[in-house]
Amino acid sequence: MEPNSNCSKQVLCLFDVDGTLTKPRNSIEKEIDDFIQNKVKPKYKIGLVGGSDFKKIAEQMNGADVIHKYDYVFPENGLICFKNGKEVSRQSIQKFMGEEKLQKFINFVLKYLSGVTLPVKRGTFVEFREGMLNISPIGRSCSQSEREAFEKYDKEHNVRRTMIEVLKKEFPDFGFTYSIGGQISFDVFPNGWDKTYCLKHLEGEGLNEIHFFGDKTDAGGNDHEIFMDERTIGHKVTSPANTKEILCELFNL
């Protein structure tokens, strides 16, 4: 579908962060940042949606003023919503699920991981976020080189996918969705709390088109649901440079 050229400000370009605007867990490079702010933003609305919390998104986007640089910022898949620089909505997995269920799940995860042997293991295996649990078999405190090594190891040994299948069988009635994203972890959240959750904040905003750009768009990836959603026009990207290429071609920038 061609973008609506007659009312370009009613077109939203909605970006994943990791692997789309930045290299995984890296900060956005100046070339990409300048391109988005100086070429895309003057013509179209722009937004971010990420599975990470706001602190991590702010780090990758070079500061908390990201909420003023983008029309919409959706940390944690949109469980937290910033619009025009102000927080307008917040939901919590703790309130939704209850402490008893969460502890039962977390205890099982930690017990399972205690029996998994990897080339290296570090710390922070379960990260509690506002809208999800992020589970990392290697541990989120690993170094960048260890992160990259685990990603290669996981592609061969399917550590994350195997663990997800175990959790699905152990907790069939919890109503959880499991989504692999990034290099070392996977997200666990209530059904419907994937990145499509952010789209409810865009209803009634007068948008003609929502173009979503993401790299983990295949089934099981954390961009898949929003990429496939009928409310968006999905674009699969392979890197920040590829995102720029697609934007230039799509919008004649």
Q: What is the name of the CATH class of the largest domain? A: Alpha Beta
List segments where confidence is low: pLDDT < 50 over at least 5 consecutive residues.
1-8
Note the main sheet.
7 strands, mixed
Radius of gyration: 18 Å
Number of strands: 11
Return the domain count.
2
Physical arrangement of strands within the biggest beta sheet: 5-4-3-2-1-10-11
Q: List the secondary-structure elements in sequence, H or E.
A: EHEHHEEEHHEEHHEEEHEH
Q: Kindly state the mean pLDDT as a whole number? A: 94
Q: Tell me the CATH architecture of the largest domain.
A: 3-Layer(aba) Sandwich
Total of DSSP H or I helical runs spanning 4+ residues: 9
Helix content: 25-40%
State the CATH topology of the largest domain.
Answer: Rossmann fold
Which SSEs are present, and which pair or pack?
Layout lengths: L10 E5 L14 H11 L4 E5 L4 H7 L5 H4 L2 E3 L5 E4 L2 E5 L2 H5 L1 H15 L12 E3 L4 E3 L8 H14 L1 H12 L5 E6 L3 E6 L18 E6 L9 H5 L4 E4 L3 H12 L2
Parallel strand pairs: 1-2, 1-10, 2-3, 10-11
Antiparallel strand pairs: 3-4, 4-5, 6-7, 7-9, 8-9
Helix pairs in contact: 1-9
